[in-house]
Write a structure and sequence with these properties.
heterodimer; A: 942 residues; alpha/beta; Dimethylsulfoxide Reductase, domain 2; Barwin-like endoglucanases; seven-stranded mixed sheet; six-stranded mixed sheet; 25 helices; B: 253 residues; alpha+beta; Alpha-Beta Plaits; two-stranded antiparallel sheet
Chain lengths: 942, 253
């Protein structure tokens, strides 16, 4: 009624203090500014100085305040008092809990350390938890990589010393064409969104290859709605087109890859398929300067891509010849793959041609001189500005390892890895498979394991097998079933432990993995395994200890709960020894620190392990006098020395002239130095070392100085992976260590040293006429696994998850809005709400991952939509393939790495009556925590 | 009835790029966090852990599927908050003067102490951009973070709305759309920024940038020269290779 405006205070106080730490709302590990008022968390925003997120923050990160204060937080140690699975617990003291754990674990360690299986889920402290497991002496340790994306990681390491995400990223500043395969919208979260933003701003192009057009694929300039499980075939068809047209970077291939390395081609030789090596064991090439044999890394050698070598009646041809033989075959012609991939042949050609156009016609050059490992000086850095990124969509198939390898081959023949505009590694990567440890599994009662659990095998001699061929590990990692299982197989632990195959265990100890719900296949079956009793009335899996911060579905199935803190109440280190957070132009690590103290009787899990390790007298956890070595995790972070000058944190180490990055002595003030620096440490890669990292002496020397490794170790990309050939050769009967008969044919096929494509293994076991539809899950950008649901803000964004159905199937079933469908696989069926989506591969249905919840979990009301309409596809997926009638257990995993083949799932779909609730309905579990408040008004300031 | 002030020279608002928005909801939650703790009453949530969780949000992202006449269906992510209209019907409808448009920068605000929660403004807004807070009984809406953009307690680089500061893809831009030379005005000019539902006559200050055309990769026929075969099989390839290598630097030995 009047124009008099109220007087506004436009400069109110924002907060009393800003505390800078690291987010843990997903695995992205962004820097956050936590604004404090009256000692409480008032507001969370991104840290502008932080290398990962540069100030931005996703929905999850901004909702951290709701996670930190979630009613689902566990409050004290819990001892099970009802039957397993009931959720009946009593709260106990930490002393009682730790005594229970020590009494269980002590005798195991003294007699049979392997009877402890310790698996740590979405752990961000694997270099520490692995160190603990090593000190305990069990071979049975891994985190969640086996059911996440080990195919991507292992294929990348074996091929080029790193894959995507924490290993490498597109050169967002310079790339002109970006091709994205099968990313679950969060791997990694903010950097991809920031990168896409940069690409868009520069007017560069983006192509999305994904059966589902949502999220990143929705903003892609072009969308390729590929049929699930056929990415490898599509990629190899593009390789076919490019090679056939000679659109390959010959200079790059000759110098920086093993395309020029000579391979024994005599089928009668015991060296068939292996590299020709000199007396020092170095693979041989023909030097174009001399026409003679020379080691690949000889000074001034110019490797010849074309020349062959014949001696003692045996012909050796370079790898590149073998690639030509294979990929020029009509088998990989676009016409031959088009129908299977669901992409017209002409479109495949157009995509390949576009890659060639940008890579070669739009090449870029930087005036930065550098020197390669053969001593050759280059005055420029030449870039092929096409880049790629991929994650679980291509890797969570039983052909995922070879598919990921195929993608790297495509990148490499275009000369687009570690060059301007292409894909760039992030220090401490690249690091070839040979620079990683081998797996260790030698058990000595009462003593530590003989080395780190997880690593890279280079042939049958590295497998973890007993003399009789039995796998040493409970998950059968590094056995003939999956010889390169670099991350273990967490998804097989419960199933194998229940079956007593390869042996029975005593205690299952897990951290932060919801293995009775969304992180397991075959959920109902897993419940039975966890609660099954033997004829004496004892649980088949005798003891289960679990640590989690929240009342997840897994809590109900453990006997002892060690309650963890929230991420704002704890110390952590985001370590170079673990999964680093570096950028292509910089090396970085970071910490978490308690920006608030817990208001519950909970302890950081890593600090609890320091205590338990000391109680058990484990090496590395006790001083010489037997006293506890590390009082808590912060003490370990500061004082642990892994190698001379190298500890968990590489920043602010003690040098002669004060704190220094890289190598250095223990700095007692290190954590405070991190806090003062905003919670992280960052040092830039020198400009002349910023590209060609595997081959550049400028980079190699800097890497040694920083402590990534102890001696320079330049290497070339492995288009042909010789270790694969060694396993394949064993399957052909060569060598001492032989696979079991039933695995020979599969090993011959899948352990091919050059990338191949074979159909998802489930397809061979399933009647595809009956189950014609592919079924996938995706993670929403605003949720991380099961964690988002307890978050009052995030669950308003994704509170339930319909099954999205493409037009063809929608119409064929006469579906209408509000309908429900019965979805069946060979393993089981679910009844769920459906919704129509046109921007979807015509034979694919999908839903959001891990929205569905069990009644009683996460401090939600039992009639929460997550529990009544939300659902999991996991009920349809089994950890084993359907029985073949041979009496054997065939894991539903990639036969190379053991990666869980979540996305091989085949289903049929039919209209259903509308049920009261999504089916199957599981009985409610009793919540170990009280319900949350009905209404929230979260204002902590006055 | 409440009067609008004379049009201000300075027109602060948002420019939202629909070509870049990946629909991640970062802006939604960042806004919820800031505005729960700051301006006026907190943004409350009802039945927060129950069957029908429902809270107040000043900014929401909707997703719409678009089926072009030809080609593949597309998904558009569409963030929506108050557009700070020049002819703001939510202001003129307000019976108490609680809703007002600032004379100096055009931001539309609610003076909560005068708001009786009658809901007329939400009814009048054609965009559905206002939400009545169920707990406090007052109308909540985007403030353009009026308590951030001038806030001298914040570093200068942070004096922008929370949603803009947090947007990971850089799809949200903040500035003076009354100044034709501002970055946001230039962006609107360059990219064909448009008004939402101009037929409503509200003259929104916020602009949207349209999605670029999709699925328009060049036809293979144009690109065909890039795949001109040099060989039909492995043998032919090796022959080509010998020749090709001799033309490389250091070749022709």
């Amino acid at each position: 009624m009047s124009l008099d405006q109220p007087q506004l205070d436009t400069s109110p106080d924002v907060s009393d203090e800003v505390r800078k730490t690291t987010c843990y709302m997903c695995a992205c590990r962004c820097g956050i500014n936590v604004h404090m008022k009256d000692g409480k968390v008032a507001y969370i925003e991104g840290n502008k100085d932080h290398p990962v997120n540069q100030g931005v923050l996703c929905a999850k990160g901004s909702a951290g305040i709701m996670q930190h204060n979630a009613p689902s937080r566990l409050r004290a140690p819990l001892k099970r008092v009802g039957p397993r699975g009931s959720g009946e617990f009593e709260e106990i003291s930490w002393e009682e809990a730790l005594t229970m754990a020590t009494d269980l674990l002590g005798p195991i360690r003294e007699k049979h350390p392997e009877k402890l299986a310790f698996f740590t889920g979405r752990d961000q402290s694997q270099s520490f938890t692995g160190f603990w497991a090593q000190g305990f002496g069990t071979p049975n340790f891994a985190a969640h990589g086996g059911f996440c994306s080990v195919n991507m990681a292992a294929a990348g390491i074996y091929t080029m010393g790193g894959a995507f995400w924490e290993f490498g990223q597109p050169d967002w500043e310079r790339t002109k064409l970006f091709m994205l395969f099968g990313v679950a919208e969060d791997h990694d979260s903010n950097p991809i969104k920031m990168g896409i933003g940069k690409i868009k701003e520069r007017g560069a192009r983006m192509i999305g290859v994904n059966p589902i057009r949502t999220g990143y694929n929705a903003v892609a300039d072009d969308w390729v709605g590929i049929t699930p499980g056929t990415d490898g075939l599509f990629i190899l068809a593009m390789v076919h087109c490019l090679m056939k047209a000679g659109k390959v970077d010959l200079d790059y291939l000759a110098r920086f890859t093993n395309a020029s390395v000579l391979v024994n081609e005599d089928p009668k030789s015991d060296q068939f398929g292996l590299f020709l090596r000199d007396d020092d064991g170095q693979p041989q090439v023909i030097d174009r300067n001399t026409g003679q044999l020379a080691p690949w890394n000889g000074q001034d050698v110019e490797p010849d891509l074309a020349a062959t070598y014949r001696a003692k009646g045996i012909t050796h041809r370079p790898v590149f010849h073998q690639m030509a033989d294979r990929y020029l075959s009509d088998e990989y012609a676009p016409e031959a793959v088009a129908e299977r991939c669901g992409i017209p042949a002409q479109r495949i050609r157009a995509l390949a041609a576009d890659l060639a156009r940008v890579a070669f016609d739009e090449a870029i050059e930087l005036d930065r001189p550098w020197t390669d490992f053969r001593g050759k000086k280059h005055d420029k850095m030449v870039g092929r500005p096409v880049s790629f990124h991929a994650m679980r969509g291509i890797s969570a198939h039983s052909n995922g390892f070879q598919t990921c390898r195929a993608l790297h081959i495509l990148q490499i023949i275009l000369g687009s890895v570690e060059v301007p505009g292409g894909m760039r590694f992030k220090p401490p990567y690249p690091k070839p498979a040979t620079a990683h440890p081998k797996p260790h599994g030698k058990v000595t009662p009462g003593a530590a394991l003989d080395g780190p659990h997880l690593g890279y095998t280079h042939g049958p001699e590295d497998l973890l097998l007993e003399d009789d061929g039995t796998p040493k590990r409970i998950d059968k990692a590094y056995s003939w079933e999956n010889p390169m299982s670099a991350h273990g197989l967490m998804h097989m632990v419960i199933s194998n432990a229940h079956a007593g195959v390869p042996y029975k265990i005593d205690t299952l100890f897990m951290y932060m993995a919801n293995m009775s719900w969304n992180s397991s296949m075959n959920v109902g079956g897993v419940h039975k395994m966890l609660t099954d009793k033997d004829e004496d009335g004892n649980y088949v899996i005798p003891n289960i200890i679990y640590s989690d911060a929240y009342s997840s579905e897994m809590v109900a199935y453990a006997d002892l709960i060690l309650p963890d803190t929230t991420y704002l109440e704890r110390h952590d280190c985001i370590s170079l020894l673990d999964r680093p957070i570096c950028e292509a132009d910089g090396v970085a690590d970071a910490i978490r620190w308690p920006v608030v103290e817990p208001d519950r009787d909970v302890r950081g899990f890593q600090s609890v392990l320091c205590d338990l390790g000391a109680r058990l007298g484990m090496p590395g956890f006790v001083n010489e006098d037997g006293s506890q070595k590390y009082q808590d995790y912060a003490d370990y972070i500061t004082n642990h020395i892994r190698r001379p000058g190298v500890g968990p944190l590489a920043g602010f180490r003690k040098g002669e002239d004060g704190p220094q990055g890289g190598r250095g002595d223990v700095n007692p003030n290190q954590i405070q130095d991190y806090i003062d620096n905003g919670g992280f440490w960052l040092e830039h890669v020198p400009e002349n070392a910023a590209f060609y990292k595997p081959f550049s002496m400028d980079y190699q020397n800097w890497a040694v100085k920083m402590g990534f490794y102890d001696a320079v170790q330049p290497y070339i990309f492995q288009l042909y992976v010789e270790p694969l050939r060694k396993f394949q050769a064993a399957a052909e009967g060569i060598g001492e260590r032989q696979p079991p008969e039933h695995l020979r044919e599969r090993l011959k096929l899948t352990m091919d040293p050059l990338p191949i494509w074979y159909g998802p293994l489930e397809d061979d076991q399933v009647d595809l006429d009956e189950y014609p539809v592919h079924a996938l899950t995706q993670r929403p950008m605003a949720m991380y696994h099961s964690w988002g649901t307890q978050n009052a803000w995030l669950r308003q964004i994704h509170g339930h998850n319909p099954l999205y159905v493409p037009t063809k199937i929608w119409e064929a079933n006469g579906f209408e809005d509000g309908d429900w469908a019965k979805v069946s696989s060979t393993h089981g069926s679910i009844v769920v709400p459906v919704a129509h989506q046109a921007s979807l591969n015509a034979n694919t249905v999908w839903t959001w991952n891990a929205i569905g919840k069990r009644k009683g979990a996460w401090a939600l009301d039992e009639d929460a939509p997550e529990a009544t309409k939300g659902f999991l596809l996991n009920h349809l997926i089994h950890e084993l393939l359907p029985p073949k009638g041979d009496g054997l257990r065939w894991a539903n995993s990639d036969p190379v790495t053991g990666q869980a083949a979540w996305f091989d799932l085949r289903v049929k779909i039919e209209k259903s009556d509308v049920p009261n609730e999504a089916q199957p309905v599981m009985p409610a579990i009793k919540s170990p925590v009280p319900k949350g408040p009905s209404a929230l008004e979260w204002k902590v300031g006055k | 009835m409440t009067q609008l002030p004379p049009p201000s020279a300075k027109k602060l608002g948002l420019v939202i790029d629909l070509d870049t928005c990946v629909g991640c909801h970062a802006c939604v939650v960042s806004c919820k966090g800031w505005n729960t703790e700051n301006y006026g009453a907190p943004l409350s949530d009802q039945d927060a852990y129950g069957a029908n969780p429902s809270g107040t949000f000043l900014n929401r992202v909707h997703s719409y599927e678009v089926q072009p006449d030809q080609g593949e269906a597309q998904l558009i992510h569409f963030p929506k908050s108050c557009l700070h209209c020049e002819d703001a019907p939510c202001v003129t409808v307000c019976p108490t003067g609680a809703s007002y448009k600032r004379a100096e920068d055009g931001i539309v605000l609610v003076n909560e102490s005068d708001c009786i929660g009658c809901g007329l403004c939400a009814w009048a807004c054609p965009y559905g951009a206002r939400e009545l807070d169920a707990k406090e009984g007052v109308m909540k809406k985007c403030t353009l973070c009026v308590d951030r953009i001038y806030n001298e307690n914040l570093p200068e680089e942070d004096r922008q709305p929370a949603c803009v500061r947090t947007c990971p893809a850089g799809a949200r831009h903040f500035g003076d759309l009354g100044d034709v030379d501002s970055d946001v005005s230039k962006l609107v000019a360059d990219r064909g920024g448009f008004d939402l539902m101009p037929e409503q006559g509200t003259r929104p200050v916020n602009k949207y940038l349209p999605p670029r055309p999709k699925d328009e990769m060049p036809e293979f026929d144009v690109l065909a020269p890039y795949l001109e075969p040099i060989a039909s099989d492995g043998k032919g390839f090796v022959g080509w290779l010998d020749k090709a290598l001799s033309s490389l630097p250091g070749g022709a030995k």
